Amino acid sequence: MHATRPTPTPPPTAAPARPTVTELRLSAYKAHRGAAFRLGPVTLFAGASGTGKSSALEAYEALALLGAGGTLADAFPDPVGCVPERAEADAEGRRGFRIGCTVDGPAGPVRLDLAVQVVPELRVVGERLRTGDGRTLLTTALRDPSRDTVQAEWHTAGSVPVTRAPLPGDRLGTALLPLRVSGRTEGQRQVLAAAEQVVVALRSVFPCDPQPQGMRAPVPAGEGRLRRGCDNLAEVLHRTRTGCARRHARLAAVARAGCSGPVRDLDVEELADGRVRAVLGRGAEGGMPVGRLGEGELRYLALALVLLTGPGVLAMDPVAEVPPAMQTLTVLADGFDRGLDRRQTRELAALAAQICADGHMRLVGTVGEAGARAARGRAGVTVVDLSP
Q: Is the pLDDT of residue 105 over 70?
C-alpha cells in the first residue's frame, strides 16, 4: 500500500514534553505492506474503498489496547483477518502480521515493533523497543513454541549489561517493563523512560464513532463520561454545561455553523421522569430536541463535543499517575465525515486544527473523497492519500 504525503516537517530541535505517537507502521497488516505513516496534529486517511483507511485506525487502536495491558485476543478479535492476503506461511507453517509505531517525547523518539503469529495459534513471536538512534532497549523472541512465554532481553548497562527473563506470550512486553525493571542503573532508567513514554502515548486514546440512532432518545441524568457511540450525549451536556461557560458557548457556536435553521443556543431539558434530553434553542420558535436532527447533524454535534472536551469527560482510561498536562489525547474517528455535508466537514476540520494546535489533543481519522477535498490544504491538517 502506498501513500502520497506532504513533505515531512523537519523534526523539532527539542523533544516534545508530552508523549505523542508520530508514526504508525504497518509492515505487514491486512492490505498494507511496508507502510509508514507520519502522524501530525490532525491526520485524515483518504482513498478508495479497500485501500486500508479503516485498518490503519484499527491497528492504532489495537496498539492502544496492548499498551493498556490488554491481551492479543482483546486487541485483535479477528486475528486471521489481520494477516495480509496471499501471505505465505514460513517453514514451520506459521502465518501472522507485523505492526509498530514511533513515540516522540521527553525520552526522544522511541520505536516499537511487534510481530504477531496467528497460525497455528495467536501469540507474540517478536517485539523490539529501540531508541531513535538505533539502540535496542528490549527484544523478545519465541524460543520454545511449547511454552506460553517469550524470552525477553532488556538493556541494563550495569555489572550485567542485559537482563533475561520470560514474559507472557499474549501481551505487549513494553507495557510490562515498568513492573519488571527496578531502575537501579542508568541503563534500566533509560529502558523505563522509553517504555513509560510509549505506554502513556498509547493509553491516551479515545476511539469515537457516534451512532445517531442511539442519540435521539432521552437518557438518565448522571455523572457519566461520553461513550464511544456518544449515545449519552445529553447526559454529558447536562453535566458539563455549567462547568465551562466558554467551552459551552463555543459548542453552541459550532452548532449554529453546522445545523440547519436558526440556532440560538444548545441547552438540556430535564424531564419529569428524571431523564434529560439535549435541545437546540430556536429563539422565537422555542426549542427543538436534538433527536429530531438528521444523522449528519447528530454526528457533527457529537464530534464537536468530543473535540471540545477531554479525558475527564470522555469514557477512557487515562494514565492516572501522569498529570493530564503531560498527556496528549488522541481521538480516533473512523468515518470522520460520514453523513456530513461539505460545510460540516469544513467546520469540524477547522475546529480540530484549532483544538489540536497546542499539542494537548490530536485527531486521526478517515474521510471520503468529499471530506478529503474539504480538509485538504487546511493549515494543521494532513491528508494521507492511500492508493491501491
A: yes
What are the distances in angstroms from CA 382 to CA 41, 272, 312, 365? 8, 47, 27, 10
Question: How many degrees, rounded to 5, is the angle at CA 32 between CA 56 and CA 39?
Answer: 40
Angle between helical axes of 173-180 and 186-203 (0-180°, round to 10): 130
The gap from C-alpha 240 to its chain's centroid, in whole angstroms, comes to 23
Backbone angles phi, psi at 112, to 5 degrees: -120, 125
CB neighbours (10 Å) of residue 54?
A: 15
Task: Of 200, 230, 354, 387, give the one whose Cα is nearest residue 293.
Answer: 230
User: Which residue type, as a one-letter code, is found at position 35?
Assistant: A
Give the pLDDT confidence of 37-76 residue by residue, as tens digits. 999 999 999 999 999 999 999 999 999 999 999 999 999 9
- Residue 136's alpha-carbon distances to 14, 111, 141, 181, in angstroms, are 22, 9, 14, 16
Per DSSP, the three-state class of 15 is coil
Cα separation, 102 vs 38, whole angstroms: 9
Task: Report which of 133, 132, 150, 149 is spatially closest to residue 141, judged by C-alpha positions.
Answer: 150
Average pLDDT over residues 79-91: 90
Q: Please say whether the beta carbons of 281 and 287 come within 8 A.
A: yes
**H helix or E strand, kind and range, residue 59:** helix 53-67
> How far is residue 316 CA from its own chain's centroid?
11
E-strand ranges in 193-232 read 205-207, 219-220
Q: Mean pLDDT score of the chain, rounded to an integer?
A: 90
Residue 324 clears pLDDT 70, i.e. is over it: no
Round to whole Å and give the CA distance between 343 and 361.
Answer: 23
CA distance 80 to 282: 51
Task: Tell me the Cα Rg of the chain.
Answer: 22
Please check whether residue 215 is in contact with residue 230, taking contact to mean a CB–CB distance below 8 angstroms.
yes
Cα separation of 226 and 203, whole Å?
A: 17
The Cα 294–Cα 260 span in angstroms is 9
CA-to-CA separations, 215 to 51, 248, 289, 295, in angstroms, rounded: 31, 19, 11, 9
What is the band of 134 on the pLDDT scale with cuts at 50, 70, 90?
Answer: very high
